[in-house]
Amino acid sequence: MSTADVIVIGLGAMGSAAAFQLAKSGQRVIGIDRHAPPHDQGSSHGETRISRQAIGEGAAYVPLVLRSHEIWREIEEETRQSLLLTCGALVLSPRQGAAAHHGKSDFLLQTAASAEAFGIQHELLDAAEVGARYPQLRLRGDEIGYFEPGGGLVFPERCIEAQIALAKRHGAQIRTGERVLEWTSTAHGVRVRTDLDVYEADQLVLAAGAWMPGIAGPALTCLALQRQTLHWFEAEEPEQYQADRFPVFIWIHGSGPEDLFYGFPIVPGSQGVKVARETTRFMSATADGLDRVVAESESQAMFDGHVAGRLKRVRSTCLRAAACIYTVTPDNDFVIDRHPEQPRVLLVSACSGHGFKHSAAIGEAIAQIARGGQTSGLASFGLGRLLGAGGQSQVPQQDRIQ
Ligand SMILES: Cc1cc2nc3c(=O)[nH]c(=O)nc-3n(C[C@H](O)[C@H](O)[C@H](O)COP(=O)(O)OP(=O)(O)OC[C@H]3O[C@@H](n4cnc5c(N)ncnc54)[C@H](O)[C@@H]3O)c2cc1C
């Protein structure tokens, strides 16, 4: 039986960052994943993730993303890979009406307020100014735009791969293709049983993404899963959509919760303009039961409902599509906290569709907590806010219809 200071279960966005930072800080780490990250079975695949510095989801996130950008630049230096591309980030919203995103009302104005509060460079633009800068967009004329030059995208698979490689370089034992079956508390720590072995450690980090509801037990009954789809549509003039002249964008074009889509420039080595919408419907299946095949009709609906008439010279030909899972809490904020009954267990989860940009700094914070450090930066993500009278977390208030 192998032993360690800390075992990390799940080596996706959060777990790879935690394993790297724990190992770097001198902890003996065992990292375990049932797949071989980076992979396309969870929540961290699909080539790109938006990163914004001013965070409309809440001020508590801003220090995390700012620190993550620093960490990715440090890792880029060390690994000679490009992880973060600051092509600019544009948020578009109707001028009238408080447009919501990720459960937060007035998303654009909250983003701008966040930028003001943290001194993040940005501009507020009217539709004419946005259209002049980005002629690829067909605007209605009543939009307001928030533009952040330091925003852009991260390459999730590369980030995960780099952090796992660095974790190993710092001495972590990485076990992939090994599935955790159960974890239990012992007199002095935790014991983890997998389909191949048994391990013991002083502390446990649970970072199993969409599998958290199964692995964390009653503490996380509040989590729900959403099947989200990504689509890459053909551009008539691909050079018009490359990162030197096109930003990442979030475009809120109505007042309903699904009246928005977001997209990316075409990144080197890829084809097609990647876009996605966000469904608010919950899956009835577990993560293992996710329908991974994206039907042509889903891509067609994505194109007709969002892309058509908004992105110029983008064809309805879908070159590629993928399905991916959001793990969400009732308030769309994260859970990063000690397990309510097992203080040696850290829960790192529920990144509710906006977690990747913060993951590098979350890994660093987890390493600090595991060493007994202060966690004030994570105070907003405590599980207590979601716990009901019986000590079980609250179930989201929505019917599960998918
Ligand atoms: C379509 C989509 C678009 C998104 N867009 C953005 C964006 O633009 N910007 C942004 O910041 N965020 C975005 N997000 C959110 C972000 O990608 C996620 O918050 C983040 O990737 C979640 O990481 P994770 O580590 O929690 O999960 P994962 O990366 O999925 O990792 C969980 C790992 O746990 C492992 N595991 C599970 N069970 C076991 C077990 N029993 N034993 C061993 N290992 C196990 C899995 O194999 C997996 O590798 C998006 C998410 C999706 C799905």
Automatic annotation (TrEMBL):
<keyword id="KW-0285">Flavoprotein</keyword>
<dbReference type="Pfam" id="PF01266">
    <property type="entry name" value="DAO"/>
</dbReference>
<dbReference type="GO" id="GO:0050660">
    <property type="term" value="F:flavin adenine dinucleotide binding"/>
</dbReference>
<keyword id="KW-0274">FAD</keyword>
<feature type="domain" description="FAD dependent oxidoreductase">
    <location>
        <begin position="5"/>
        <end position="368"/>
    </location>
</feature>
<dbReference type="InterPro" id="IPR006076">
    <property type="entry name" value="FAD-dep_OxRdtase"/>
</dbReference>
<protein>
    <submittedName>
        <fullName>Sarcosine oxidase</fullName>
    </submittedName>
</protein>
<keyword id="KW-0560">Oxidoreductase</keyword>
<dbReference type="InterPro" id="IPR036188">
    <property type="entry name" value="FAD/NAD-bd_sf"/>
</dbReference>
<dbReference type="InterPro" id="IPR045170">
    <property type="entry name" value="MTOX"/>
</dbReference>
<dbReference type="GO" id="GO:0008115">
    <property type="term" value="F:sarcosine oxidase activity"/>
</dbReference>
